[in-house]
Amino acid sequence: MSEGTASPAGIEIRALDSMEQVFVASEVLSEVWGGDRTGMPPNLLRALAHSGNYAVGLYDGERMIGASAAWFAAPAQRSMHSHITGILPGYRGQSLGRLLKQHQRAWALARDVGHITWTFDPLVARNAHFNVRVLGARVTEYLVDHYGAMDDGVNRGDESDRLMVSWALAAPASAPPEDQVVTSVPVPHDIEALRRADPAEALEWRYRVRDAFGGLLSDGFAVAGFDDTRGYLFARLT
After folding, report:
1. Which of 99, 111, 85, 81 lies closest to 29 in space, CA to CA?
2. How far apart are CA 27 and CA 178, in angstroms?
3. What is the pLDDT of residues 106-121, one digit of tens each?
4. Strands of 162-168's sheet in order across
5. In Å, how far are 12, 61, 73, 92 from 192, measured between CA atoms?
6. Cα–Cα distance between 213 and 225 in angstroms, integer?
7. What are phi and psi of 164, to 5 degrees?
8. What is the pLDDT of residues 27-81, one digit of tens each?
9. Which of 13, 36, 230, 231 is the most exposed place for a label (fewest CB within 10 A)?
């Protein structure tokens, strides 16, 4: 991934310095998550920003179109955890998520942070592609129903399994040589559309992927990459 990902014309990332910005960011994230107002309430976002953590808005001119928040881990870990990043639907597919991650990376490195962690739904193929294949984040854990029942428009009716990933900012992971790939775990091409069309089948995918990950991880295998056709690529731990 290029160090110098250029901002499109009119796009800017700004720190959330005012209460007005904080409230707008909370509204934007609520819209991204289908009306959920509990994911990042303004008071929490304000506290994170004021105490020196990462809290930014993504702007198109004067309109905020996305936001991201992260906080520091234990000092000895030289790490921070990226809790939430969202971009309004009309602005997706324009490499703005990549722009935000590059900004987050530069912000972290300037503060002697070497790793950024976050979670994502293992069934969302586009996020797996971006996190594992594009950024080179390494899967460290499979977390079963990590957040419990969620009532937002994105996750309602499903169980909140998540993959924890760690992004080594100076040395991201690369795709494995083909001869090291032992097996793969497929995921749906578009789980969000499947949830709307056939919630029962979407839930079956959840259980199939959970069982496959559980068995492979317990047998000493690890996620080594992601392929858009085959899904998660597993290799044996060395």
Report:
1. 85
2. 44
3. 999 999 999 999 999 9
4. 11-15, 54-60, 63-72, 79-87, 115-120, 162-168, 138-143
5. 29, 30, 31, 15
6. 14
7. -90, 130
8. 999 999 877 777 789 999 999 999 999 999 999 999 999 999 999 998 888 999 9
9. 230
DSSP string, the chain: --TT-PPPTTEEEEE--SHHHHHHHHHHHHHHTTT-SSSS-HHHHHHHHHTT-EEEEEEETTEEEEEEEEEE--GGG-EEEEEEEEE-GGGTTSSHHHHHHHHHHHHHHTTT--EEEEEE-TT-HHHHIIIIIIS--EEEEEETTTT-S--STTTTTS---EEEEEEESSS---PPPGGG--EEE---S-HHHHHHH-HHHHHHHHHHHHHHHHHHHHTTEEEEEEETTTEEEEEE--
Give one DSSP letter per residue of 70-94, joined into a string: EEE--GGG-EEEEEEEEE-GGGTTS
Asked if 155 and 148 count as a contact pair (C-beta separation under 8 A), the reply is no
pTM above threshold 0.85? yes
In whole angstroms, what is the distance from residue 116 CA to residue 70 CA?
Answer: 9
The Cα angle at residue 30 between residues 26 and 31, in degrees rounded to 5: 120
Structure tokens at 217: 């991880």
Place of tokens 């030289």: 78
Predicted confidence (pLDDT) per residue in 143-187, tens digit: 998 877 555 555 565 688 999 999 999 999 999 999 999 999 999
